[in-house]
Amino acid sequence: MLNPVEALASASGASAPAIRLILSVLLAYPIGLLYRQLKGGTTLRHLFIAVTGLLIVAFNYGTDIYHSLLAVAVSFLCNSVLGKSNLLVPVSFTYHMGYLLIGYYYTTSDTYDIKWTMPHCVLVLRLIGLAFDLSDSRKKEKDGKPDAKCIPAPSLLELIAFTYFPATVLVGPQFSFLRYQRFVSGAYEPHTQNAPAYAMKKFLQGVFYLVVNQVGTQYVSDAYLMSADFEQESLLMKHVYMGCWGRITLYKYISIWLLAEGAAVIYGLTYIDAKPGDREYCTDELSGCSNIKVGVFENTSKYGHYVESFNVQTNTWVANYVYKRLRFLNNRMLSHLGALFFLAIWHGFHSGYYITFLLEFTVIRMEKEVEPIFSRNEKLQQLLQSQPLLRALVFVGLKFYTIVWAGWCLVPFVFLSFHKWWHIYTVVRFSGFILFIGGNIFLAPLLRAVLPKSSSSGKQPGASQDASGVAPGAVKKDN
């Protein structure tokens, strides 16, 4: 007898693991509504979250749940034994990343598979981040400078609940133990009365992007990029097709993140409790765990906007725990490269990951060199202000640039294996490499000669933006 998951997989054409994933994210909504009705102390809340989260992981991965249970056990042991030692972070980091990479080694294939390593990579960041936060807290206390962001070592039940939070255990987003602690204590409840309505907005957005992705893949598929028919297209149409394909592919990630965010909102986890002055925020803002800034993403005019808007919480994590921790290198470019290398190896061993993040570095560096040259030229800016048609042409040109070349850069990330992405890049004549490598070497000097800096120009717009390119504006510590 065909079970419901297999029936849905057969009807939709998706794999059974993908159906389980979607069902689990959706199941977090009614579980979150039940949580809101709980009457009891923090122990009951921890228990409810832990049990439901464990059941979701077991539903998806069966006996492979032992991998995450072992990670929690090791993390609890490290926190208990090494909590006041300088070894806490290196031991936790080495164990969790090492275990994940061994898992990749034994489970990886030529395609993107939904296996136990997918939620495990989410778990790894969560538990490593906890080790960093505990170490930072003990250091502040030792220096006699404790503050409101210092956290105690969680109990085993707290750690299980934090790790297996039902709305985020499979696909994220990342959040800190401090946020979880404040949430479960009830500190956010006065500000989350309207959470169901906000969650419904995220749910509908997620459904919309999921539908667009499913319909779009019928017209712009992975298989076509590898086909002989694609090779026969003109060079221009190949690039246009890659841009459309890349956009539709990104919608797959956006849809699942929006659905997961909506579930987290239902619980009341996502309230932003920054102190006034730390950032601009609405009193009852509920976007504290947002993983995608839809408005920024849909209005991109440069590659940096993708970095700013996409996978926000992971980028924030990397900015806080990798990029900023590499300041001892005393070189922002090296810190940036180190952060992107961490992201690549965190994804796995496929060459495509490393090429995509290397391309990100190359494009971001080119844009940071080129953008100020345009913005500092007063004559050009005045011309744009006075000529609506020219502004419209620039807008169209920038949209073409961001959509087409984002798709180009995404090819290795999706196709993973060298022989696949290399074949596609051969078909399009390695155009992106020529553009971005040549742009880094020649474009800025050429533009400086053609568009000299105006003598009266002020400070470079956006000069305060974080130079890493990992997550502009995302180095704010999660509350």
Explain what you see.
The chain is mostly helical. The chain has helices at 4-12, 16-36, 42-61, 65-81, 88-107, 117-142, 156-163, 177-184, 195-216, 222-225, 228-232, 235-267, 294-298, 303-309, 312-323, 332-347, 351-375, 378-386, 388-415, 418-427, 431-450. The chain is built from 21 helices and no strands. Helix 4 runs antiparallel to helix 5 and helix 4 runs parallel beside helix 6. The longest helix has 33 residues, at 235-267. The chain is globular and about 65 Å long. One of its GO terms (molecular function) is 1-acylglycerophosphocholine O-acyltransferase activity. The chain crosses the membrane at residues 18-35, 42-59, 87-105, 250-269, 334-355, 392-418, 430-451. One of its GO terms (cellular component) is membrane. It is found in: Endoplasmic reticulum; Membrane.
Helix/strand layout:
Layout lengths: L3 H9 L3 H21 L5 H20 L3 H17 L6 H20 L9 H26 L13 H8 L13 H8 L10 H22 L5 H4 L2 H5 L2 H33 L26 H5 L4 H7 L2 H12 L8 H16 L3 H25 L2 H9 L1 H28 L2 H10 L3 H20 L29
Helix pairs in contact: 1-2, 2-3, 2-12, 3-7, 4-5, 4-6, 4-7, 5-6, 9-12, 12-19, 15-16, 16-17, 17-19, 17-21, 19-20
Family: Belongs to the membrane-bound acyltransferase family.
Subcellular location: Endoplasmic reticulum; Membrane
EC number: 2.3.1.23, 2.3.1.n6
Would you tell me the overall average pLDDT? 90
- How many strands appear in the DSSP assignment? 0
Strand fraction equals: under 5%
What is Rg? 23 Å
Along the chain, the helix and strand elements come as HHHHHHHHHHHHHHHHHHHHH
Pfam families: MBOAT
Membrane topology: Multi-pass membrane protein
Protein name: Lysophospholipid acyltransferase 5
Biased composition (Polar residues): 453-467
